[in-house]
Amino acid sequence: KALLSTRRFGHAIHYVESVDSTQWLAHQGVRSGAKEGALFLADEQTQGRGRMGRKWHSPPRSGIWMSLLLQPQIPLNLAPQLTLMASVGVTRAIRRETGLPVTIKWPNDLLIDGKKVCGILTELRGEQDQIHYVVLGIGMNVNTPAASFPEDLKTIATSLAAESGRTYRRAKLIAAILEELEHVYDLYLTEGFEPIRHSWESFACMLGQSVTAHTPQGPRQGIARGLHASGALLLETDEGVVVPVYSADIRQV
Ligand code: BTN
């Protein structure tokens, strides 16, 4: 707490040693009156959740497993912008604290040297077309030794320590994440998505390159051109047409 210079984010902290998922803690927290900026934090998750129903490996004390409660007054259809906004804030925080060259893979995977170091999961509840609240889940591999990742993750995952040979104080990183998130969030609420879109593009790792987008409708090949205000990735096809991709796994070709 002494490390924090935010106005709202992280002033209420709900910490537990071990939990199935901090996302669940946050949803519970809302039911008991938690407010915007409340932080839910655990040293270990036994059922960490990732995007698209995947599991998130969250061993004790080696990473940051946290969920932040947001209550923006924005329509439900703008929710994807919040995830992209979060990836910009967290990228800034890691760069600032470690100097490591973190980039963003659409929509919001944080990579170092092509390997994933951090993932973001947003879950929201709304009524009609208004957001009631958003739980912003952030999972960051901080001091995980490269050799201790499970076999299936070894080639695709990394940690800040594995990339730099240093270890990091998680509390200091969390403070930096909260500061940068509060900053981009305030910017988003006052100026809208455009400045965030620009920052996102400046951190993106595949723009101008040939990629395959594995969409639910099948693969699509093209050159990644940028980010649309809807949050979609703009893909220029072989015919020279730019199309938005709303849901896909992106791989470089
Ligand atoms: C992804 O890249 O698939 C998103 C991973 C999000 C993991 C974090 S860890 C804290 C929070 N609690 C969870 O169960 N998941 C998110």
From TrEMBL:
Q: Which UniProt keywords apply?
A: ATP-binding, Biotin, DNA-binding, Ligase, Nucleotide-binding, Repressor, Transcription, Transcription regulation
Assigned EC number: 6.3.4.15
Q: Which GO terms describe its biological process?
A: protein lipoylation; regulation of DNA-templated transcription
The catalytic activity, as recorded, is:
biotin + L-lysyl-[protein] + ATP = N(6)-biotinyl-L-lysyl-[protein] + AMP + diphosphate + H(+)
Query: Transcription regulation: is it a keyword of this entry?
Result: yes
User: What GO terms fall under cellular component here?
Assistant: cytoplasm
Report the residue ranges that make up the BPL/LPL catalytic domain in this protein.
1-189
Kindly list the positions annotated as binding biotin: 45, 49-51, 116
Provide the GO MF annotations for this entry. ATP binding; biotin--[biotin carboxyl-carrier protein] ligase activity; DNA binding; transferase activity
Origin: domain of life: Bacteria
This chain's function reads:
Acts both as a biotin--[acetyl-CoA-carboxylase] ligase and a repressor.
Describe the family membership recorded for this protein in Swiss-Prot or TrEMBL: Belongs to the biotin--protein ligase family.
Name recorded for this polypeptide: Bifunctional ligase/repressor BirA
The organism that produces this protein has a lineage beginning with:
Bacteria, Bacillati, Bacillota, Bacilli, Bacillales
Please tell me where this chain falls within the complete protein, as first and last residue plus total length: 74 to 326 of 326
